[in-house]
Design brief:
Layout (H helix, E strand, L loop, with lengths): L1 H62 L5 H10 L7 E6 L2 E7 L1
Antiparallel strand pairs: 1-2
């Protein structure tokens, strides 16, 4: 009888430990989600700033009557591919974001 009570108590303690580990895992996942959202918002703000800079550069190119407008136009094409460079890598529950390729 005493052995049975001890086994039930140990089983209850084991279940409580597993519950605590599950709660800890959920908290870590929520923290990871918050980090990803913040990184994505920062990336969007950076992209908006780059777009605004590109628009200002285009306005300045129109004002210039120099012969190197063709060279400036070639440089502007490279900035448009920045949106495709951000990669989110998930390794289990660990995320590094963003990694620029």
């Amino acid at each position: 009888m005493i052995m049975m009570l001890m086994m039930l108590t140990m089983l209850r303690m084991l279940m409580l430990m597993m519950l605590m580990l599950m709660l800890l895992q959920m908290m870590l996942l929520m923290l990871l989600l918050i980090i990803i959202i913040i990184a994505d918002d920062a990336n969007d703000a950076d992209d908006d700033a780059n777009d605004a800079d590109d628009a200002d550069a285009d306005d300045n190119d129109d004002a210039d009557d120099n012969d190197d407008d063709d060279a400036d136009a070639d440089d502007d094409d490279d900035d448009d591919d920045d949106d495709d460079d951000d990669v989110y890598v998930f390794l289990g529950q660990v995320a590094v974001c963003p990694i620029t390729v």
